[in-house]
Write a structure and sequence with these properties.
about 350 residues; alpha/beta; 6-stranded parallel β-sheet; 13 helices; 12 strands; binds nicotinamide-adenine-dinucleotide
């Protein structure tokens, strides 16, 4: 058989494997970080990493972040992730089928889904060779998670509003969305109906024009977006953008968006805290998608009503967290980490 699976021992990870099939051109990693609370669910990223080491670092980092997210929100899943080192334009059914065999070798401790460089159609191809795949656009499947993620962000913003302004209403608040992709564009639509003053930014001008036309949003250039005064800044593009300099520049009262790993450094979080900018920890506010996908894998099966109601709990979780953080005078992300550890210990 051409497929080789190599196991790597990595401290604090349950299992890390590397899959190589030279004939097909598959080179992948799957990291299972923690399955205390259920099977490790996490997307498959296809990306042309510049080195094997970079791919391994990314999969380890992302798998751990999935454990935090799933544990904080008690989605019933654990944390894992996978990456294929390749240009996503090069993906083929053969490549995805070979990857599915690597998933099968974990016997269900890891369940894959779409992520950067993959989509729900790719998941249908993977499904031809493995049952361990979710967020499928089929009967009984939970489909594209992004609308649940966007709705969860709205609930998180309402928790911010209640905490800061004593009412969950977002009416007449100015919200700047950076990144109008799957989640950001749906967030813009939800906020439009809540009578929010929208400011938007994306490197893709077509996406910006569409949101301006549909929802009367104002545009801001990427270079200006951190300096633009607003009530809530919503990072919805890529991660690790809020570094110390950005944190010092921001002129908002709160940060609440869907991007993963928003804080580039711990120091950036401390600056936000000193400036009294309320930060909604990313792995809680953006958990709507994992809540939705995890239900598909649960014994009870997928149910959109249960999913919606669980996403709504993001409001209470965040509001309690903000209040506790204020009471003991620490940044909210510290309380969020405590919550994760508490749930994992239980
Ligand atoms: P996406 O790829 O559909 O959208 C990202 C958008 O950001 C694109 O429109 C892109 O043009 C824009 N962008 C990229 N760099 C930018 C920059 N420098 N300035 C302004 N815009 C920029 O991705 P998505 O699915 O909407 O996810 C957005 C973020 O949320 C990602 O960090 C993702 O990991 C995270 N996330 C997504 C989900 C989900 O359900 N899709 C769930 C949890 C977390």
């Amino acid at each position: 058989m051409a497929l080789k699976i190599i196991e790597h021992k990595v401290e604090n990870y349950e299992k890390v494997i590397e899959g190589i099939d030279e004939e097909i051109g598959l080179h992948c990693f799957i990291a299972v970080h923690n399955t205390t609370l259920g099977p490790a669910i996490g997307g498959l990223r296809i990306f042309p990493y510049s080195s094997t080491q970079k791919a391994l670092e990314d999969v380890l980092f992302l798998a751990k972040a999935m454990t935090y997210k799933s544990a904080a929100i008690l989605s019933g899943s654990g944390g894992g992730k996978s990456v294929i080192i390749a240009d996503p334009k090069r993906k083929s059914p053969k490549l995805l089928h070979a990857f599915a065999e690597v998933v099968n070798s974990l016997k269900g401790s890891y369940v894959t889904a779409a992520d950067v460089g993959t989509n729900t159609n790719d998941m249908l191809i993977i499904k031809e060779k493995t049952p361990y795949v979710c967020a499928l656009p089929i009967k009984g499947g939970s489909g594209d998670p992004s609308i649940y993620t966007a709705f969860g962000v709205v609930k998180g913003m309402e928790a911010v509003a209640k905490f800061l302004w004593d009412s969950p209403s977002l009416e007449n608040k100015t919200i700047l969305i950076k990144g109008l992709g799957n989640v950001g564009s749906k967030l813009a639509e939800f906020l439009f109906w809540k009578r929010v003053n929208l400011i938007v930014c994306d490197i893709d001008q077509e996406k910006v024009e569409l949101i301006i036309d549909q929802y009367g949003a104002k545009e801001v250039l990427e270079s200006e977006c951190y300096k633009t005064p607003c009530d809530i800044f919503a990072p919805c593009a890529i991660g690790r953008t809020i570094n110390e300099q950005v944190a010092s520049t921001l002129e908002c009262q709160a940060i609440a968006g869907c991007a993963n790993n928003q804080l580039a450094t711990e120091e950036a979080g401390k600056i936000l805290f000193q400036k009294k900018i309320v930060y909604a920890p990313d792995f809680i506010i953006n958990a709507g998608g994992i809540i939705n996908a995890a239900l598909e894998v649960s014994k009870e099966g997928y149910n959109p009503i249960i999913s919606r109601d669980k996403v709504i709990t993001i409001y209470d979780i965040l509001l309690n967290l903000f209040m506790k953080a204020k009471e003991i005078n620490v940044p909210p992300e510290e309380i969020a980490m405590e919550l994760v550890e508490q749930h994992l210990r239980k």
